[in-house]
Amino acid sequence: MKFALSALAAALTLASPASFAGDAGTTAIEALGKVNGIALACQQPAIASRARNALVTTAPKTRANGEIFENATNAAYLEQGKGAPCPDAATLASLVDAAEKGLQSAFATGR
């Protein structure tokens, strides 16, 4: 009986509204995290702040979404540290614009 209740709880958690966004939501959060990591590595705090704010105000506040964002941020930050040239602020702004639109599109039904 205990196992059945645990399985039911797990199934309900997986069927939460946050998971309905599915791959589109994950992709959008990863894109935003990537821009955040590049902005942090390239010392563009305004762009990084904008990326974090977009995540907090648009996507459901779940541990999974936070981990997706953090993992993408860390990967992009480390990749940028391998000597890739930093994009200028205008390029980063356009990247965060696109990532915000993707995030809004992925989570529009959750609002």
Itemize the secondary structure elements and their pairings.
Elements: H1 2-14, H2 17-20, H3 22-41, H4 45-58, H5 63-80, H6 89-106
Helix pairs in contact: 3-4, 3-5, 3-6, 4-6
Explain what the structure shows.
The radius of gyration is 16 Å and the shape is globular. The model is unreliable at 1-21 (pLDDT under 50). It has helices spanning 2-14, 17-20, 22-41, 45-58, 63-80, 89-106. It contains six helices and no strands. With 111 residues, the protein is mainly alpha-helical.
Short description:
With 111 residues, the chain is mostly helical. Helices cover 78% and strands 0% of the residues. Helix 3 (22-41) runs antiparallel to helix 6.
Overall SS class = mainly alpha
Question: Low-confidence stretches at least 5 residues in length (pLDDT < 50)?
Answer: 1-21
- The helix content, as a percent range, equals over 70%
Mean pLDDT: 83
Oligomer: single chain
User: How far apart lie the N and C ends?
Assistant: 36 Å
> What series of H and E elements makes up the topology?
HHHHHH
Q: Supply Rg.
A: 16 Å
Tell me, briefly, the overall form.
globular
Count of helical stretches: 6
How is the main sheet built? none
